[in-house]
Amino acid sequence: MVHPRHRLDDAFQTPVRFSLMAALGTRDEVDFRTLRELLESDDSTLSKAISHLERAGYVKVTKGYAGTRPRTWVTATAKGSSAFRTHVRALQEIASPASPTDSQELGWRLSSHSS
């Protein structure tokens, strides 16, 4: 059996990128300002996170106008949503305690230390 850490995606290794994908969830699209407020981020950090995920093909960025004001909207792609779900499942597997049977199968040794 392969350790779940091998299914972690480096694209989600920063808290802002991870939070960004979580915030997008299954929503159609979210505007930059809303994301900035949800994530409590500054413009530069959020912009860099979006660019990184866009290069990975995990988000799609649409630019346009709301009235006369320029706006940026971000949407998770199918590829990004799938990768994020895989990443989260791997984190859950890592965080959940292995049963004694699993530990024995994997050759993991449980030890206790007394003080």
TrEMBL record:
Source species taxonomy: Bacteria, Bacillati, Actinomycetota, Actinomycetes, Micrococcales
Gene3D superfamilies to which the protein is assigned, alphabetical: Winged helix-like DNA-binding domain superfamily/Winged helix DNA-binding domain (1.10.10.10)
Domain Winged helix DNA-binding positions: 16-94
Protein name: ArsR family transcriptional regulator
Superkingdom classification of source: Bacteria
Region annotation (Disordered) ranges: 94-115
InterPro entries, alphabetized: WH-like_DNA-bd_sf (IPR036388), WH_DNA-bd_dom (IPR027395), WH_DNA-bd_sf (IPR036390)
Alphabetical list of Pfam families matching this protein: HTH_34
